[in-house]
């Protein structure tokens, strides 16, 4: 369980987060939406222990976050930069396995298995720069999943992809979430996406000093599909509500 | 692209109009540095320049032999034309001070490269002249490279160490290296230790400064990735910092290599040396043996070229497909 208690964050004199309190139960897929620059990435960096919270506390399974928590994985917004271009795709994905003390062959086997799972078989020996944006994003997701995280943070992971790739990856994410029961905090600025993917949507207000302005449970059928779900009256109602909250910060 | 790259190395920044811009360059609007390695820009004189985030080293053209062949031919044809022109001018003039290149080459061949097959055609004179020089140069250069990379990465990784060391580095770099040789003569007396120390000490600064700049410019996002992946210190160094700094390190190594050659010759020009190419040069000069002087000069040119080519080959191997395509 992830708990944030009155978390405040600032860069110098510039306030970014102004008292965020949230409880994310195990296995929930929480979507965080908000206008650009409101502090979504900052929130994830703070949860990941990369930025110490200015005020307030964050706990993961009861343990206060001081450094990077155990069994945490992050998919960064700038996924292309987050991969190491001098390593092959397989070595990028296998990198987090080193600390598990696995043999080289075992690391490679696990990396290739997870690559297959995200729909990337046959590119293990290529380099990230030789792949398309969508493929690079799958590599970044594979690297995050390879250690079987219990908490996964994703920062606008599908932000710069074309519609079709994006839908495929949304469904991949849902499938992984259903199979592994990972707790996921998924940041996006796409309102439709947040409702489609999330179990719950939290809306942050416009900065500086943003706070939670809306916290909505998504009670749509668990089994989602790109055409059907987006046509449901419940979906339309939710996206209208989220959209209004994002626009008016209310 | 090898030719393209090397030509870029020899071409001043301003006259690059004939170079094609790769798609990546036109997108970022960032030009290649004279040495061809964009993120690894060598600091020529002013160390205060901040390095941009390591950009993609996109050189798709490097892998296209067809496109590389034209500049390659062009480059060699210019050299050939220069030599032919020199030959013609020297013959026409007939001055004893400026012998034609063919005579120089024939003299050099007789002097050094007409030995038995078992000695790779090297003569006794070559073994006694070239090998000691190269040995001292290699020792000095390797010492400088190892120490420079290690110290440079250490300095570049710590913001405080960098702030503290930077003035010292800028100062040490500003001293013309040959000016330091007398100091080493006093401390170590004439001989190989003095020569190796002079080479190593002069060649140290370019690698050190460039390694520090390279390590300092490690992408902060990638450092966050390393933290999230919980890489250990050595892993972070090996998988992240060192590869990020590699283009800069090689930019520094190339400067250090040419300084090593300069210092190798310079330290052999001093009294008290008994072998080496520099010694051959002064010795032939006192005997007014101009053919040998010119031969030694040509030999130095060829050696410098071959060493630089070798270093570029190593660089291309290490900075592999991940960044070059
Ligand atoms: N390293 C930094 N130093 C100073 N200010 C920063 C830094 N990073 C972000 N900011 C500021 O903090 C605010 C929040 O930034 P953040 O990146 O968290 O926004 P975001 O919600 O992720 O935006 P986007 O949707 O565009 O990714 C912005 O106003 C930004 O200018
Ligand atoms: Mg962001």
From TrEMBL, chain A:
CDD domains: ABC_NrtD_SsuB_transporters (cd03293). Keywords: ATP-binding, Nucleotide-binding, Transport. InterPro entries: AAA+_ATPase, ABC_transporter-like_ATP-bd, ABC_transporter-like_CS, ABC_transporter_ATP-bind, P-loop_NTPase. The keyword Nucleotide-binding applies. Residues 2-231 form the ABC transporter domain. GO terms for molecular function: ATP binding; ATP hydrolysis activity. It holds the Pfam family ABC_tran. This is ABC transporter. It comes from Streptomyces cellostaticus.
